[in-house]
Write a structure and sequence with these properties.
By secondary structure, this protein is α/β, with parallel strands linked by helices. It is built from 11 helices and 13 strands. It folds into 2 domains: 113 residues, ornithine cyclodeaminase, domain 1 (2-Layer Sandwich); 172 residues, Rossmann fold (3-Layer(aba) Sandwich), CATH 3.40.50. It has an 8-stranded parallel beta sheet. It has a 5-stranded antiparallel beta sheet with strand order 1-2-3-4-5. A hairpin with a 3-residue loop joins β1 and β2. The radius of gyration is 18 Å and the shape is globular. Bound molecules: nicotinamide-adenine-dinucleotide. The site of nicotinamide-adenine-dinucleotide (NAD) has 30 residues, from α3 and α4.
Length: 312
């Protein structure tokens, strides 16, 4: 059993980015499989998600939450467990803390999308929403040699804390300062739009991470429709992601949204030019969890990290 700290010791942001890129590619090629995630509402508090995937001789099930009111109660928004099993025998191999795996794979996919979709010269990073996943997104982008930039949060203390941690060149700022950066990562709870059409500038790349379930959005539908669109996986993105509102409004069709895996596989192009505005819609995939969990299992097998043991 790997707890939160053991997962982070086992898998660095750099390794997480490599493995998540590889997972997206394998999923695109059909080598890894992933049924749709199942939402179980727990009104009025939040929801549970069951997320299975199979690949690399392993099968994974993540049982994870999004409880937006938790921070006010001194608890994290996202908690849960991952069960990693042998895909040949069905036997459970490892239980992992889901919070750390989720944070790593979410930051990692933002880094992967930025590498594939942002302008080659893009460096500065705007982080809008400096909670747990905003922080890990920034850490992963730094591991991908991007940054520094501006941290913005409705709670200025969160923005200042993150900017201090990230180091030289990083500063806390207003929303407008963050939105002027080359790559903008939005990681708010998705209850109100933080990006509108007027904020879109030539060359901008947006990573939209906060809208990972039905009813959430961080941009207006008009802003979504004005971008070149990419997503992690179309079914999830069109039903519970940033592009959902624009799809429902008839402003965006399937043909306008490219999956990141297709770009990584060189089967689709990324941005059409340096002045394009690109938007990556991350809803969070079980194959990302599989990629990071598999790396953690390997690290344990190689003796790089200690695990706790339980007899079931
Ligand atoms: N795409 C994915 O794979 C993925 C993975 C995990 C979490 N998420 C989603 O990301 C979001 C953030 O999760 P978290 O765990 O970091 O939550 P969190 O509560 O730790 O952080 C959210 C932060 O956003 C700030 N915020 C709220 N409204 C804002 C606004 N309008 N402008 C600027 N900042 C604002 C809050 O003050 C807080 O600091 C949630 O919606 C969560 O479900 C997505």
């Amino acid at each position: 059993m790997l707890d939160h700290d053991a997962v982070l010791e086992a898998v660095s942001p750099k390794l997480a980015i490599e493995r998540v890129e590889d997972g997206l590619l394998r999923f695109h090629r059909g080598e890894w499989v992933m049924p749709p995630k199942v939402y179980l509402d727990s009104p009025p508090y939040g929801d549970f998600r069951a997320m299975p995937a199979r690949g690399a001789g392993l099968a994974v099930l993540k049982w994870v939450t999004s409880f937006p009111g938790n921070p006010a109660r001194g608890l994290p928004t996202v908690t849960g467990l991952i069960c990693l099993s042998d895909a040949g025998t069905g036997q459970p191999l490892m239980l992992l803390d889901a919070r750390s795996v989720t944070a790593l794979r979410t930051g990692a996919v933002a880094a992967a999308a930025s590498r594939a979709l942002a302008r080659a010269s893009a460096r500065s990073i705007g982080v809008v929403g400096c909670g747990l996943h905003g922080a890990w997104t920034a850490r992963c982008l730094i591991a991908a040699a991007l940054g520094p930039g501006v941290c913005h949060d409705v709670d200025p203390r969160s923005a200042a804390r993150l900017a201090d941690e990230l180091g030289p060149g990083w500063r806390a700022g207003e929303l407008a300062d963050a939105l002027r950066c080359d790559i903008v990562c939005c990681v708010t709870p998705g209850t109100s739009a933080v990006v509108d059409v007027g904020e879109l500038r030539p060359g901008l790349h947006l990573n939209m991470l906060g809208a990972d379930g039905p009813g959430k959005a961080e941009t207006t539908v008009e802003a979504v429709a004005a971008c070149e669109l990419f997503c992690d996986e179309w079914e999830q993105a069109s039903h519970g992601g940033e592009v959902t509102g624009a799809v429902r409004a008839g402003l965006v069709t399937r043909a306008q949204v490219t999956e990141l895996g297709a770009v990584l596989a060189d089967e689709a192009s990324g941005r059409t030019g340096p002045d394009a505005v690109t938007l990556f819609d991350s809803t969070g995939l079980a194959i990302q969890d599989l990629a990071v969990s598999a790396a953690a299992l390997e690290a344990w097998r190689a003796g790089k990290v200690e695990a706790q043991t339980v007899r079931l």
